[in-house]
Amino acid sequence: MNWHIVADYVPQYGRAVLVVLRLAAIAIAGSLAVGIAAALVRHHRVPGAARLVAVYVEVSRNTPSMVQLYFLYFGLPLVGVKADGFTCAAVGLVFLGGSYMAEALRSGLEAVRKGQLDAAASLGLSPRQTLLRVTLPQAFAVALPALTANAIFLVKETSIVSVIAVVDLMALTQNLVSMFYTSNEAYLLLVASYLVILLPLSVALRLLERRVRHASFGS
């Protein structure tokens, strides 16, 4: 192990970490938004839309994420839709994550007891108020472990975006190894970079789960 090489590579890995963090932030926020909308559509069985959402969930969950990225980056230009690698990566991760978030939230919505909705109606809450103040908070509390697992899953999935020319941690490592044969140093920094990203995120999400569980269920 040549530590001088490791030190030389650190700035490049720092920039690649920022790329991963940007992608992960977009993927998590976007997939949550998609997941909420899709879960509500399926939970309330919106005519027509519920079936489309079901098809989306099945397609997203049953096709490899790499195939989805290839389709966005190489397939869509054939029909005149072009986007750079980062945009395709962000869209692909939101497409993938949205289906997992939707299923997690749908299970949370189905866990809300009818008595809670009856109580909200008896208090005179409108459907919108019931959704925002009763249904969604309880659904989030129930689904939170699955949602946090999906968030970590999406961060890990950023490691495949190098296949569409996004210079993330994996692409940088492959480039350094192929050009300079410094595999030990490059792989060490690759592992260290993901640990720097994932360990604090994992701890933060665990604390959030504990806090929400205590606030919702008292344990």
From TrEMBL:
Pfam families per record: BPD_transp_1
A GO BP annotation: amino acid transport
GO cellular component: ATP-binding cassette (ABC) transporter complex
Bilayer-crossing regions: 20-41, 70-96, 135-153, 160-181, 187-208
The keyword Membrane appears for this protein: yes
GO terms of molecular function: transmembrane transporter activity
InterPro entries (alphabetical): AA_ABC_transptr_permease_3TM (IPR010065), ArtM/GltK/GlnP/TcyL/YhdX-like (IPR043429), MetI-like (IPR000515), MetI-like_sf (IPR035906)
Subcellular location: Cell membrane
Lineage top rank: taxon: Bacteria
Keyword vocabulary terms for this entry: Amino-acid transport, Cell membrane, Membrane, Transmembrane, Transmembrane helix, Transport
Domain spans labelled ABC transmembrane type-1: 17-209
Topology class, membrane: Multi-pass membrane protein
Family: Belongs to the binding-protein-dependent transport system permease family. HisMQ subfamily.
Name this protein carries in UniProt: Amino acid ABC transporter permease
Organism for this UniProt entry: Xylanimonas allomyrinae
Lineage, opening ranks: Bacteria, Bacillati, Actinomycetota, Actinomycetes, Micrococcales
